Input
Amino acid sequence: MLPERLVVMANRIGQQLGHYRLTRKLGSGGFADVYQAEHVYLNTLAAVKLLNANLASSDIQNFHTEAKTVARLVHPHIVRVLDFGMEASMPYLVMEYAPNGTMRQRHPRGTQVPLSLVVMYTKQIASALQHAHMQRLIHRDVKPENLLLGRNNELLLGDFGAALLTHTSVMLSIQNIIGTISYMAPEQLEGKPTPASDQYALAIVVYEWLCGYCPFQGSLAEVHNLQLYEPPPSLLAKIPTLAPAVERVVMKALAKQPEQRFVTIQAFAEALEQASLHVQASPPPLFLRGDVGVQGHGHGNETLLATETFLSPSPPPLAVAPPHLAAQPFPVTMIANASIPAQPHLSRRVFLGSLIGLATIGGAGGLAWWLTQQEKQPGHATTPDPTRAPTATPIPSKSEASYIYTGHQDQVFTAAWSPNDRYIASAGGNSSSRRGDTAVHVWEAQTGHDVNSYTGHSSLVRMVAWSPDGSRIASASEDKTVQVWDATTGNNPLTYSGHTNQVRAVTWSPDGKFIASASMDHTVQIWDAITGQSIVTYNGHVTGVVFVAWSLDGKLIASASVDGKVNVWDPTSGTAPRVFPHYTVVGSLAWSPDSTSIVTGDYNDDDSVRIWTIRTEKNTKVFPRTPGNPVYTVAWSLDGKLIAAGYDQHQVKIWRAATGEQILTYTGHHASVIDVQWSHDSRYIASGGFDKTVQLWTIS
Output
């Protein structure tokens, strides 16, 4: 028969500890079981950790003292302790419930995490541990399983169970430390932990994130001896592209003697960040690994692609190239009269019908009536702008592309250049079923070879955006999520689920720390790009928000909604908006490089491209419109000279921003053009549309 204590523990579900009723078991560790629990009066959720230790009466006061210390740890990256107590001589803690799992689940063993993410994770964990150390508390059990993800995917340091038992007579058995010894400092294995022991454990975690595995492998006894006596294997031997400065920092934190490590754990995190700033090496080779959410596509099998990549003398990085390796333009040899299978023309009525349906779902039921009334009214005559260019001179047209990507099976809604202009990320789906080919394809602009195909979304992908350093991609989908993932491998997605309706647009802050997402739930939400923690929710729109863009100086955000309003507002507070009214739905907008103006594109009755000055809130330019030819997308070149607009009638028009003169019409598409994007050197355009292609071309 089982001992009485184990029988009691096995039947814990349904029991009440304090004010909390245990509802289900979340997991078991070496010396604790964790349950999800519900407050019997408030109906709020918590996690209850029941320590598998019968405390002697002399130990109970020590436990209470340590528990009070832990409960006083108030920090944004530490799991809050809400309550504690004793149940039949067994101590328990009631903690904040973290519903999104652990960092072990987010980054399974064998996964290499981008250095930029490792640095940001380390800073957050070190900040939490430094706070604990200042309260004279050593965690003693830092490992990925004890790094939790909160309600908004924020990183939380949990499980101070080992610390709570420090001053009791309870001793951990060999069985208790099997899952922990890989992260234990030598002095801790000898029973003499210090705050530097947490630094050592965090450095092991960093080592594992960088190369996929802990430095010491083997049996319990083997790992024990390796921790005590052997230096860690070289990180550079495992990751040749890693900066030596990064390895030096990690190895210093892994010194066998505590006094040889950094003075504080915060100093370790700061040194790692400084070392990472000097990284100029390429990231891991671009090859398909067959990871979850990533699949090969179209241009040959995985073996061939991997072989070609490894044989390349210099695998092209996805991160921003150093100045001396500025983006090299792809060949401009034109494909004369490039043949693309003709697609059925999708009229603006189909597109707008889709929009109206979505707006109705999003609570903007009056939009259908509003659009109908607009169609019944006389056309809105726009006062001719004195800066408009004369149109008597024939405008040259062009239909040849430098490269045409045909890897999509459905309509393309978004195409974005990587910061170094070497890669394109493109996505879309079926505008009728809202599903179809919802993969985000990442491919080489020069060759069209696929790098990976991210398949994490369950519905049409509306927009993709690269992080400013080129290491990650954020994708916004009608499945109500934004997913942030590694641009090289497609691994490690962070899923932001703060919206209650389809997400139509996404943009990064210029410093890469935050993401703003626009949704048909009428909100724009700003959140942390690493943790997913919500920062600001902008509620200035009364209908669905279809576009959002961050100014290049980082000071303002512009967002457009289906009621024709463009709001420009402060991202730090979500206040003081400037409103730029339009006659009809604004499908797209873009900032000028100097952040003083925006260009907007209208569709339905107005079908115009307009420039607005932010300071004066004036419409300073209206480009010649083509009635019955809605504008779906606009883009401003980063040299500030040109504006591109994509139209329903298969065209992309290029205008001079200063004069309004149209200088080119591109006619290479066979259906509506939904997205246009300038390369960062302002020489090339990527345009995608309902003909299922992305076309790369120049204006020369």
Summary: The chain has a mean pLDDT of 78. The chain has 14 helices and 37 strands.
